[in-house]
């Protein structure tokens, strides 16, 4: 994180989307770490807050600090192993919403740009021929011109789950996500009060009975029907 970064996570109550004996699903707000960072200053996290109410909760996957949306926790060790298997084998399907700068020429497509850590600028990632395979499907939902900035609401469906994948892929297309402190130019970074990236939907199989489950989380920058409010 940048030297000027001050961690000040929002003090909001947990928003529980679903719970059974095996798993707990929460709508993560932007601005809070999924799991604790190093040192007391970064101790507050979604995991630590969940564990205050559910002491046995176990982390299964993560969202970036600035990304909001669906996060799944396991409530039993056996469930944790099964859920992590589903993530590792790409059985979990994820749908994100993002607002990006500019109007996209292609209204849908698949981005296949390999990614690796940028050794000169951690924790950022970069497109690199020797990076790991990364694949993102995208589809334009809505376009707008507001405050002299053209912007597009897109649906993103990552096939792989690389660090910062959606942020790097959209920036590589020339359409960085609004509010992105790492990959957007200053004007695009300043165009939103937060990173406009939200994990809106996640589908997996219940760890015990293998029934399909889908979880949907609302966000502040787009309505539940997938459109900007007042547009």
TrEMBL record:
Pseudouridine synthase RsuA/RluA-like domain span: 22-172
InterPro entries: PsdUridine_synth_cat_dom_sf, PsdUridine_synth_RluA-like_CS, PsdUridine_synth_RluC/D, PsdUridine_synth_RsuA/RluA, RluA_PseudoU_synthase
Keywords annotated in UniProt: Isomerase, rRNA processing, tRNA processing
Transmembrane segment boundaries: none
Keyword tRNA processing: yes
Reactions mediated catalytically: uridine(32) in tRNA = pseudouridine(32) in tRNA; a uridine in RNA = a pseudouridine in RNA; uridine(746) in 23S rRNA = pseudouridine(746) in 23S rRNA
EC code: 5.4.99.-
UniProt feature coiled coil, ranges: none
UniProt entry tagged with the keyword rRNA processing: yes
Annotated Gene3D superfamilies: Pseudouridine synthase (3.30.2350.10)
Signal peptide interval: none
Stored PANTHER family: DUAL-SPECIFICITY RNA PSEUDOURIDINE SYNTHASE RLUA, MITOCHONDRIAL RNA PSEUDOURIDINE SYNTHASE
Protein family according to the UniProt entry: Belongs to the pseudouridine synthase RluA family.
Function description: Responsible for synthesis of pseudouridine from uracil.
Name listed for the protein in its UniProt record: Pseudouridine synthase
Source organism of this protein record: Alishewanella longhuensis
Encoding gene per record: rluA
């Amino acid at each position: 994180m940048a030297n000027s970064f001050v961690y000040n996570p929002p003090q909001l109550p947990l928003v529980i989307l679903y719970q059974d004996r095996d798993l707990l699903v929460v709508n993560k707000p932007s601005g809070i770490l999924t799991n604790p960072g190093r040192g007391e200053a970064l101790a507050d996290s979604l995991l630590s807050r969940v564990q205050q109410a559910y002491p046995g909760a176990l982390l299964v996957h993560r969202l970036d600090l600035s990304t909001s949306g669906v996060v799944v926790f396991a409530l039993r060790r056996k469930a944790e192993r099964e859920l992590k298997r589903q993530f590792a084998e790409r059985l979990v399907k994820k749908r994100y919403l993002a607002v990006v700068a500019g109007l996209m020429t292609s209204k849908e497509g698949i981005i296949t740009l390999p990614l690796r850590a940028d050794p000169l600028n951690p924790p950022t990632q970069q497109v690199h021929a020797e990076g790991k395979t990364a694949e993102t499907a995208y589809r334009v939902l809505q376009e707008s011109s507001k405050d002299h900035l053209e912007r597009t609401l897109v649906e993103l469906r990552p096939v792989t789950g690389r660090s910062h994948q959606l942020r790097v892929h959209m920036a590589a297309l020339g359409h960085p996500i609004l509010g992105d402190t790492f990959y957007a130019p200053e004007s695009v970074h300043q165009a939103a009060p937060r990173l406009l990236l939200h994990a809106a939907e996640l589908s997996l199989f219940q760890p015990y009975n293998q029934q399909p489950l889908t979880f949907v989380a609302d966000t502040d920058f787009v309505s539940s029907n997938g459109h900007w409010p007042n547009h």
